[in-house]
Design a protein that fits this description.
By secondary structure, the protein is an alpha+beta fold. It is 57% helix and 8% strand. The protein folds into 3 domains: 89 residues, 2-Layer Sandwich (Double Stranded RNA Binding Domain), CATH 3.30.160.390; 105 residues, DNA polymerase, domain 1, CATH 1.10.150; 214 residues, hpI Integrase, Chain A.
C-alpha cells in the first residue's frame, strides 16, 4: 500500500514503524517522530540502501521522484561495471570495443545522451514537473494519487529514464500495448492520455522541438465492448428494493442507499460526501468542481426526504468531515469502502428474490433518467444537467445553470415523492399479505431491539 498523508498523520506517537511505498521506497518514522525516506534496491545481485531525505521537507511526490532517479542511477552503474568487466576479460582491441558498443546501444543510450546533452530532460523529469505544475494544485488528492499510481506502474519504468527526444511513437505504443495485454483496456487509454499530456506540456515548455510521439495513436488501441450498468426497470422491483434498503442492518449504508436513490449521484460522489458541502438552509448539496472533475461545482437540490435522511445521520457524524463513515471503523472519520454500497445492494436484491447483479449503485442514474424522461414533466436539459453530464459550451453551461435550477428543485422533489410512493406501495402490500419480506424484516427488528 502506498504512503499517504493520512497514513503519516495517523502514526502513533512514541512508536517506530516503516511504511512501504512503491518500488523499494519506504518511510521510516522513529520513536521521536523523525521521518526518513529510504530506498532499498537490488542492483547487480546486491542490495543497496540509500537515504533520500526527510519528511515533511521532502514531500511524498518529491520522494518518489528521487527514488526513481536513484534507481536509474544504480542500474546504470551496474550496467557500466558489467560492460567494463566484459572488456577486460576479452582483452578487446579498439575495433572490438566499437562492436560491443553497437550491441549494447539500447542499454547505454541514456548515459550517452546525458553526456552529450547535459540539459536534455528525461520523460520522468517532465512528468514530475507536469504533475507539480498542472495536476496537484488543481485536482483532488484521490484523483492525483490515481494518476500517479498509473504512471509509476506503467509509464515511468519504461519511459522514465529516456530523454524526450529519444522516445519514438513505436516505443510509446508498445508501452501502452503492454497494459492492453494485461486485459486493462480502459487503463491503457488513460496511460496513453497521460503520456500525451506530458509530451504536450514538454513541447509547450520548449523542452524538445519534436512532434508529440503519443499523438494520433488512440486508433491503434483495442476497443472494449460497451457494458451498460445494470439497473431495475420495473416499478415494483424498485419499490421492493427501497423497502429492503429501509430495513438493511447497517445504519450508515441504509441511509446511503436511500440518499443515492433520491439524488442519483455517482458512487464516488456519495462515498466522499462531506458535511461542509451540505447547506440545510438552502436545501442544497454543492459538490466541489475538483470532485466532479468538471469546471464548476455541481448543485443537487435536496428534497424533503433527503433532508430527513441527512438529519438522522447528522446526530452521529455531524461533528466530523465525512457524512458516511466506514462500517468497520464507525468511530474513525473515514468514508466507507468503495464496495460497501454495492455489497449492501446485493444483499437487498437477494432478500427480494432478484439476482445480485440486477442493480449497481450507478444504476440509480439510469433509473432516474428513465423515470424523469418518461414522465414528460421536465425538460431534457434539466434532466441532463441534474445528471451532471458536462456541457461542452461554457456559455450554454452558465445559462443552463441559472435557467434550470428552479425547475430542478421541483423535479428532485417530484422524483423523491415518486420513489417514496413506490416504496410505500410495496410495504403496504407486504404488510397486508404478511409475506416473507414482512416476516424477514420483523425478525430483524426484534433482533435489533
Amino acid at each position: 500500500m502506498a504512503v499517504t498523508e493520512e497514513i503519516i498523520q495517523r502514526h502513533p506517537e512514541g512508536t517506530r514503524k516503516r511504511y512501504s511505498d512503491i518500488q523499494g521506497l519506504y518511510l521510516d518514522i522513529n520513536i521521536r517522530g523523525k521521518a526518513t525516506w529510504i530506498l532499498r534496491k537490488m542492483a547487480g545481485g546486491q542490495r543497496s540502501t540509500v537515504v533520500l531525505g526527510y519528511y515533511p521537507e521532502m514531500t511524498i511526490p518529491k520522494a518518489r521522484s528521487a527514488a526513481l532517479a536513484e534507481s536509474i542511477k544504480l542500474e546504470n552503474s551496474v550496467r557500466n561495471i558489467k560492460v567494463k568487466e566484459t572488456e577486460e576479460k576479452k582483452g578487446m582491441s579498439g575495433e572490438d570495443f566499437v562492436q560491443l558498443q553497437k550491441k549494447s546501444k539500447a542499454q547505454s543510450s541514456v548515459k550517452k545522451n546525458r553526456d552529450t546533452a547535459p540539459d536534455s530532460k528525461t520523460f520522468a523529469d517532465v512528468y514530475f514537473e507536469y504533475m507539480n505544475v498542472k495536476i496537484y494544485p488543481a485536482l483532488s488528492k484521490t484523483y492525483c494519487e490515481s494518476v500517479h499510481s498509473r504512471a509509476l506502474t506503467y509509464l515511468l519504468p519504461t519511459l522514465g529514464p529516456i530523454p524526450l527526444e529519444n522516445i519514438s511513437p513505436s516505443l510509446v505504443l508498445e508501452t501502452v500495448r503492454k497494459v492492453e495485454r494485461l486485459g486493462k483496456i480502459d487503463t491503457a487509454k488513460r496511460v496513453l492520455g497521460l503520456a500525451y499530456a506530458v509530451f504536450n506540456y514538454a513541447r509547450m515548455c520548449h523542452y524538445f522541438p519534436g512532434q508529440n510521439p503519443a499523438a494520433d495513436m488512440s486508433g491503434a488501441l483495442s476497443v472494449k465492448p460497451v457494458k451498460h450498468m445494470s439497473f431495475l426497470k420495473s416499478a415494483e422491483d424498485i419499490g421492493k428494493l427501497l423497502y429492503a434498503a429501509s430495513n438493511y442492518d447497517s445504519f450508515f449504508l441504509r441511509h446511503a442507499i436511500k440518499i443515492q436513490a433520491y439524488t442519483f449521484v455517482r458512487s464516488s460522489e456519495l462515498r466522499f460526501a462531506q458535511w461542509s458541502e451540505i447547506d440545510f438552509s438552502k436545501k442544497e448539496w454543492k459538490i466541489p468542481a475538483d470532485r466532479m472533475k468538471m469546471p464548476s461545482p455541481h448543485i443537487i437540490p435536496l428534497s424533503r426526504q433527503v433532508i430527513n435522511e441527512l438529519s438522522f445521520i447528522k446526530d452521529f457524524t455531524g461533528e466530523g468531515k465525512y457524512i458516511f463513515r466506514s462500517t468497520k471503523k464507525p468511530f474513525i472519520d473515514e468514508p466507507f469502502s468503495e464496495a460497501a454500497v454495492l455489497v449492501a445492494l446485493k444483499s437487498c436484491l437477494k432478500v427480494i428474490g432478484l439476482p445480485e447483479n440486477a442493480m449497481v449503485g450507478h444504476g440509480w442514474r439510469s433509473v432516474a433518467s428513465t423515470i424523469l424522461n418518461e414522465s414528460g414533466k421536465f425538460s431534457p436539459d434539466s434532466i441532463e444537467r441534474q445528471l451532471a453530464h458536462m456541457e461542452r459550451n461554457s456559455t450554454r453551461a452558465s445559462y443552463n445553470y441559472a435557467n434550470y435550477l428552479n425547475e430542478r428543485k421541483k423535479m428532485m422533489q417530484w422524483y423523491s415523492d415518486h420513489l417514496e410512493g413506490l416504496e410505500k406501495k410495496e410495504r403496504q402490500k407486504s404488510e397486508e399479505k404478511r409475506d416473507q419480506l414482512f416476516h424477514t424484516f420483523r425478525i430483524r427488528q426484534q433482533q435489533s431491539v
